[in-house]
Write a structure and sequence with these properties.
Shape: globular
Strand order of the largest sheet: 1-5-4-3-2-6-7-8
Helix content: 25-40%
Strand content: 35-45%
CATH class: Mainly Beta
Radius of gyration: 17 Å
CATH architecture: Beta Barrel
Distance between the termini: 52 Å
Oligomer: single chain
Number of helices: 5
Length: 188
Amino acid sequence: MCLGLSELLTNLLFCYMAFLNIEIKARSINSGFVRNYLLSNSAEFRGTDEQTDTYFNVPNGRLKLREGNIENNLIFYERDNQSGPKSSHFQLVKVEDAVGLKDALSKANGIKIVVKKKREIYFINNVKFHIDEVPGLGDFIEIEAGNKLADLSENELREQCDFYIRVLGIKEEDLISLSYSDMLLVKG
């Protein structure tokens, strides 16, 4: 089936558009409570993904190749390190040949660090939840209120993120400012 020029351009733009998340990462004191809350509030469970994120050396932002049984993407993002809700501007590219892409990016840029994790993925509308187990770091919860699936303003996304922080009982001292990659680099 042939696509018209406008359909082709729309598909290309969608594939390479930049999106916005308002997100948090927190140490998980009680993953079971979070899991039960999500399931009792009609969250869609997408599955458990064994993920390997390979971060590459880049002059700005972060570039990672995510390989998993659910998610396989090249992700570029820019985000400040702060513990509360933060803006993350990102581009997501679906990957068909992760091995070849990893080889090319490794040769071109070098690998900064590799992060492995077990991730449960849930959605309530446009809000994505992760329950993560990261070897060497511990258990975490992530909330990502994003505009990829809904046309919402930054303020509306922030309100969603704040709502789930409250209902999940996430305390200020549990919030994490760094990415898993940064935490592993600091740990050495």
